[in-house]
Amino acid sequence: MGLDPDFKKHRIEDLAAYNRAIIAATAPYAAVYKPNIAFYEQHGIPGLRALEETLAAIPAGIPVIGDIKRGDIGSTAEAYARAAFEIWKFDAVTLNGYQGLDTVAPFLAYEGKGAYVLCRTSNPSSREFQEQPLANGTLLFEHVAVTAASWSPAVGLVVGATAPAELRRVRELLPTVTLLVPGVGAQGGRPEEVVVAAGAVPGSMVVNASRSIMYAADGPDFAEAAGEAARQLRDELNAAALAAR
Amino acid sequence: MGLDPDFKKHRIEDLAAYNRAIIAATAPYAAVYKPNIAFYEQHGIPGLRALEETLAAIPAGIPVIGDIKRGDIGSTAEAYARAAFEIWKFDAVTLNGYQGLDTVAPFLAYEGKGAYVLCRTSNPSSREFQEQPLANGTLLFEHVAVTAASWSPAVGLVVGATAPAELRRVRELLPTVTLLVPGVGAQGGRPEEVVVAAGAVPGSMVVNASRSIMYAADGPDFAEAAGEAARQLRDELNAAALAAR
Questions:
Q1: Which chain B residue has its CA at the smallest distance from A126's CA?
Q2: Which residues of A are catalytic?
Q3: Residues 183-242 of A with CB under 8 A from B
Q4: What is the mean pLDDT of residues A99-117?
């Protein structure tokens, strides 16, 4: 469940309360929460205070993936890891691996934490680089998948729900790697397609939806509607997983 | 001039004052300041307050590159652009283009601002992906260079000082693109090598040094030593540029 507040829909003073209501309504159905930090950073320091309050409202026992897509090297990567795991206390993060293992290693030094490396993302222009054919006959995202997964069992991969053929390909290459699959719901990815493409092995995949749940309704029933949308998506995913076994 | 405070060297309460002293001493010699936001994020919200104070101490007229290496898509990329240009008021940023133009476009929508896209970085493992040979006979960083530069004249490229051969190659491919070249000083890049490799055309290159200036001395003369180190590097770069013409 993404916690990605739309800039136009909130006064910053009301954001934490909105998120608290969304969390209370969706916690029975959410396996994981995934705030994308950009939506808090866009409000400056008050936005990060709202993130703090949002994280405090997540029930203990539901893990949090910090969608931060950071990528830097050396002492800078260590600084980002410190921010992610010591300040925000995320259980896992998303990272951009363009700079190689140096980017990811400082995050892997934290025991019990995880890192999802961007592989094949859900946006239209992701093909520009990610689907470049390499001289060795593979595509760049396939090379990224295999290389990143070789770094550690704590590395998962981000593969968008809007690219089911590529999702299937990554699963073929890496039958047991954990996949983080955003893009279900508002971005157009279909749950049953995702489950079939990525495999129905329990625990092998985190499917994310954000806007379609957080803004399921605009009125005073927004939280109730979010809970209902979360429950529906969970049921759809579970049914698809059962059917695919 | 990088403004990248070492985690171990500062109590967070003293960080802004240290930076103010460094800025006062180096401003006569710095063409640009480049804070890497990771070093502030690692201290949590108090760190970002110190960044605020640091930015306020930079004299008007010296541009600031926000070294943020963000990379996301759609409304998330818009949120990061809002944070960079409306909250922090950076003049330019560094970005990771693995997700293609979608990542960079929201930043280019701000007139008068610039974006440096990661091309060939200065770290050891950068080769894992950036030097992958493509089926079309080029290397990935060459393809990234040409593609990213085609998006807009407001796009520059990040090419590390520790890879002079690749720097020369990018300059051959793109004679007029602006290059941001980190890695001089503590990381081992040599100024005269960088100037020869990247071309001595005025305004075509920003060379960055951080630790070798910020921590030129450990004692109470740290600011004086930083100013002296900044002056020396500026003189070295200017002499190399004159010699290379």
A1: B99
A2: 69
A3: none
A4: 97
Contact with chain B for residue A144, Cβ under 8 A: yes
Residue showing tokens 């060939």: B120
8 A C-beta contact, residue A201 and residue A173:
no
**Measured distance CA(B190)–CA(B233) in Å, rounded:** 10
Nearest to B158 by CA among B123, B111, B125: B123
How far apart CA A98 and CA A84 sit, in angstroms, is 19
Q: For residue A72, list chain B residues with Cβ-Cβ distance below 8 A.
A: 36, 38, 69
Which token pair is B86? 């409306």
pLDDT score at B114: 98
- What whole-number distance in Å separates Cα of residue B28 and Cα of residue B58? 11
Q: Is the model's pLDDT at A226 over the cut of 90?
A: yes
- How many Cβ atoms from other residues are within 10 Å of residue B23's Cβ? 22
Look up residue A74 and give its amino acid: G
Judged against a pLDDT cut of 90, whether residue B184 lies above it is answered with no
pLDDT value at residue B237:
92
Q: Which two tokens stand for residue A37?
A: 């930090």
Q: Is-contact B145 B170, C-beta < 8 A?
A: yes
The tokens describing A83, both together, are 């921010």
Mean pLDDT for A165-190 is 90
Q: Which residue has the tokens 């992906």?
A: B129
- Using an 8 Å CB-CB cutoff, list chain B residues near A189: none
**pLDDT at residue number A124:** 86
Contacts of A194 (CB under 8 A, 6+ apart): A161, A164, A167, A181, A184, A205, A207, A240
Is B209 within 8 Å of B2 (Cβ atoms)? yes
Size of interface A-B (CB pairs under 8 A): 190
Q: Active site includes B69?
A: yes
Specify which residues A157 forms β-bridges with. A117, A179
SS3 A16: helix
**pLDDT reading at A78 higher than 90:** yes
- At residue A46, does pLDDT exceed 80? yes
Residue pair A117/A158 in contact (Cβ under 8 Å)? The answer is yes
Find out whether A167 and A194 touch, Cβ atoms under 8 Å: yes
Whether A71 and B69 lie within 8 Å, measured CB to CB: yes
CA distance A26 to chain B (A): 22
Nearest Cα to Cα of residue B170 among B182, B184, B183, B181:
B181
Alpha carbons B28 and B189: distance in angstroms, whole number: 23
Length of chain B: 245
The Cα of A243 is separated from the nearest Cα of chain B by a number of Å equal to: 33
pLDDT at B187: 74
pTM passes above 0.90:
yes
Tell me if B34 sits within 8 A of B208, measured CB to CB.
Answer: yes
ipTM of the shown complex: 0.97
